[in-house]
Design goal:
It is built from 16 helices and 25 strands. The chain is globular and about 80 Å long. It starts with a helix and ends in a 10-residue tail after the last helix.
């Protein structure tokens, strides 16, 4: 079969390709660095003739052109599987909404639960066998393409080809239109500044808990970054990677010679991930690298898969937590911040792993815009806050004041442990509130 001939037959302009979209359609913009650019601009150009077009996507780096047209809400609505700072600002305009999910279930959503009229995504150039690689965003994109009535790809020559095991690309035979984009540079996600003293204190508590041969999952943020930096400088060896998001920290650990994957029970020798975003260093490292494995999220985040990986270490952030052990990692009251993502998947999977450990880390306090210092450990979650991790699933909690393991503890033991890692200035008030809620033993009062 002549794939190049098929390519030429389907090659068109962005303006022609987006004529497929009709009022009322559900349009999928893919995910993270795979979000279309030329197609987005072309679709925005049709706003006067379109109403009630509902777009799905997530982890945006910049506000899409369709969300900048006049009277946006009349024409387009953004529906996010996981919100970035860009998307949070769109909520206040009434043009963006969050779609709750456990990230591991997302491909199944497309196969069974949601309607997809058009998919339009950035891809790497077609290979000799007719496949367009999804780059560092395999995630759920194959499931979205399979569900869509029409698939449009926007080729970006700067998109790294990320090797995988399955579902890391779409074939030309499944594509309706091919658009050659403007080949923009990959979106950059900075690695953050130097670790703060609090970040370093938390990392100092976690890293000694990691054994040689452990399999790592790191979330995004200052504390996981600090842990990654310490691991890169440590004496640890034969580490593996099986993660939702691949970040620059993994590149640093790998280049320091700490990652071999030699002891992984699954995908031995390969670093497995669902999507990636970072600096150019990361994209250069992932491109055509056989040591890395791009895979769909219903594999990377499946609790049953994670459980098969011995000594699985999961490290994630939180917004706040309460004295019952409920962890909120996605909102500040009713103000949405990010999403559930895969945190609960990995919290559960790590504990099921032989020798596995799940760490939720956070600073003990946060300073508001008015300079007020507040405790991140609260008696009960603020009304409207989301319990990302239920109290029954949480294992290790870590602040700069210590680390506690909640597994097996009664309500008063849990309360005592959690208060022990709160900022000292807030402990008396937390004890008082715990007493009122009948989760504090008088015999354990100071």
């Amino acid at each position: 079969m002549n794939y190049q001939a098929m390519y030429q037959e389907k090659l068109t302009s962005a303006e022609e390709a987006v004529k497929t979209v009709r009022s009322g359609d559900w349009v999928d913009y893919g995910w993270c660095v795979g979000t279309p650019r030329a197609l987005d601009k072309a679709l925005a150009g049709r706003y006067r003739e379109l109403t009630d077009v509902k777009i799905r996507g997530g982890v945006l780096f910049e506000k899409p052109a369709v969300m900048q047209v006049p009277d946006t809400a009349e024409h387009f609505t953004w529906n996010s599987w996981h919100m970035s700072g860009v998307e949070r600002k769109m909520i206040a305009d009434g043009t963006a909404f969050y779609a709750p999910m456990r990230y591991s279930e997302l491909p199944r959503f497309y196969r069974e639960n949601v309607n997809v009229d058009v998919v339009m995504i950035q891809v790497a150039p077609m290979d000799d066998f007719g496949y367009f690689n999804f780059g560092p965003s395999a995630s759920h994109l194959k499931a979205a393409c399979d569900a869509a009535k029409t698939v449009i790809v926007e080729v970006n020559r700067n998109m790294p080809r990320c090797l995988g095991g399955f579902d890391e690309g779409v074939h030309i035979s499944q594509v309706a239109h091919v658009v050659e984009g403007e080949n923009p540079a990959m979106w950059q996600l900075g690695g953050g500044g130097a670790p703060t003293a609090v970040d370093q204190a938390v990392a100092d508590l976690i890293v000694p808990q990691i054994p040689d041969g452990a399999c790592l999952q790191l979330g995004i943020g200052g504390m996981p970054n600090a842990v990654g930096s310490m691991i890169a400088k440590s004496d640890l060896k034969d580490l593996g990677v099986h993660t939702e998001m691949y970040v620059d920290g993994f590149v640093d650990i790998a280049m320091a010679g700490k990652i071999t994957g030699a002891r992984k029970n699954l995908d031995r020798g390969r670093q497995t991930y669902a999507f990636a975003a970072g600096t150019q260093k990361l994209y250069d490292y992932l491109a055509d690298n056989p040591a890395c494995m791009s895979a769909p999220v219903d594999y990377t985040n499946d609790v049953r898969v994670v459980a098969q990986l011995d000594n699985f270490i999961s490290i994630n952030n939180a917004v706040d937590l309460d004295l019952f052990g409920q962890v909120n990692a996605e909102s500040a009251g009713v103000k949405h911040i990010s999403g559930t993502g895969g945190q609960l998947d990995f919290v559960m999977g790590a504990y099921l792993s032989k020798g596995g450990k799940s760490f939720i880390c956070l600073s003990s306090t946060v300073t508001g815009k008015d300079g007020t210092v507040k405790s991140r450990i609260v008696p009960t979650l603020t009304p409207g806050s989301i319990a990302t991790d239920p109290r029954t699933c949480v294992q290790y909690l870590v602040t700069e004041y210590g680390m506690v393991n909640l597994k097996g503890l009664s309500s008063w033991e849990r309360t005592e442990a959690i208060i022990s890692i709160a900022h000292p200035d807030f402990r008396d008030e937390l004890i008082s509130q715990a007493d009122k809620m009948h989760i504090w033993r008088r015999s354990s009062k100071r």
